Fold each of these.
Amino acid sequence: MLQKIQETKAFLESKTNISPFVGIVLGTGLGNLSTEIEIETAIPYTDIPNFPVSTVEGHSGQLVFGTINDVPVVAMQGRFHYYEGYSLQECTFPIRVMKALGITNLFLSNASGGVNADFEIGDIMLITDHINLLPDNPLRGKNIDELGPRFPDMSEPYDIDLRNQVINIASENNIKIQQGIYAVLSGPTFETPAEYKYIQIIGADTVGMSTVPEVIVARHMNLPCMAMSIITDLGVDGKIVEISHEEVQEVAKAAEPKMTLIIKKLLAKIYASETV
Ligand code: HPA
């Protein structure tokens, strides 16, 4: 794996002059952040050695290098999900590569189903913690000591300073933001009513099909993470209705401007504080 990371890193460095400060996984809800990136180079995943190829509708699948208000970033436009058939090592390979390229923070977004009765469709939830209910862990197998420890600490999976900054930014901009725990299941099925109830009973606030593997791998490498989720449907007793991927995308689209604004402000703040 180390060799593959180096090979992919070398390839990408031959295509771009950007040294990215932050890596961003443009999941559902951050689609339009890509329009805010002054793009220097965009490379389709299919052209990148050792990258898997994205298949899901709504994810175009390219790695974008550029700047947002002069802050150098690398952004994944489209991510890899376990339900697509990739191993978790494959799903998280791009995170390894972005770290090798020098990113100091990782921002992620996703869509999820809310199981907290206080949540409303369209809410943004700052992820404070997660529960991995996938039948695997991306770190299973021989540990690569050069990348991180065998038994990584998970006491603060989502960086507290980044979270506090997001809360401040939301409040300064009159954006309602929920906070809570994200549970991940493999999908591709949405949950049954009994499964939503189970998710709620075990202590989560939302459920989705992504993000957790990427955060585990990032934490393995001691990379600080910030993730936000758009509540696109509710798995709450009495509020469960039929949902579709299209509806999820539609709700997420409506919440995009708020999430995009938060990310832009956060980027500017941390870049200013880390480059003084
Ligand atoms: N469950 C799982 N994933 C999801 C959901 C959900 O209800 N909504 C959006 N992504």
Amino acid sequence: MRRMLVAGNWKLNGTLSTIEELVNGIKQGLDSVSGNCDVAVCPPALYLQHVQQLAAGSRLLLGAQNVCDQDEGAYTGEISAAMLNEFGCRYAIVGHSERRSLYGESDELVARRYAAAQRKGIIPILCVGELLEEREAGQTESVVGRQLDAVLASQGVDSFAKAVIAYEPVWAIGTGKTATPEQAQDVHAFIRDKLAALNKTVAESVVIQYGGSVKGANAADLFSKQDIDGGLIGGASLQAEEFLKICQAAG
Ligand code: PGA
């Protein structure tokens, strides 16, 4: 059976004090979350060390919101996988739609970031998902397929044994408009089938999260679907109580 993974993507939010309150609140509720569900938070990079210290001794895992595609050198503003390792990061999100659309990250750059994370033993959370106009034009599978192909072409299907995929329809991110469990399941099944055509074992074991306006109230329905293995949570991960409700729904 696959494990579940619920990860909070805090984006550009938080201060030293609000983060302390949030992490302490999450820690207090972790006993109510099933042992089959891994729970992670992805703070802004500057706060990773703070969160690492606050989470020490608990089962709360740590992730970064991005990672440089290069190992070291003249790359101003970037943070390497080796640096993330020093602060206990188990995961790094790559290819979030905000990075793709606001910062122009191409499929190829995302694939290189994915590879850089894996070179240092960090599990990339590869985000894929279509825009509203792409969904309306019936292009969901071709877009998600293209995003996956960029990674498959350079890293191969076996790399997904040490990766997580997050299906995040762009029209559902931060909009309050969640994909229905059926809409999400269809795309998750498409992703798993695509990998299964190349390697059945890897396809069966890879964790595929759903992301996009997940809340305490809709998480259980989404997570009940066969191919939905947890969630990548934005807005609702900024409140401990709401985030814990989502984690509990993954039990
Ligand atoms: P949201 O964000 O939960 O606020 O829609 C999800 C994400 O961007 O990962």
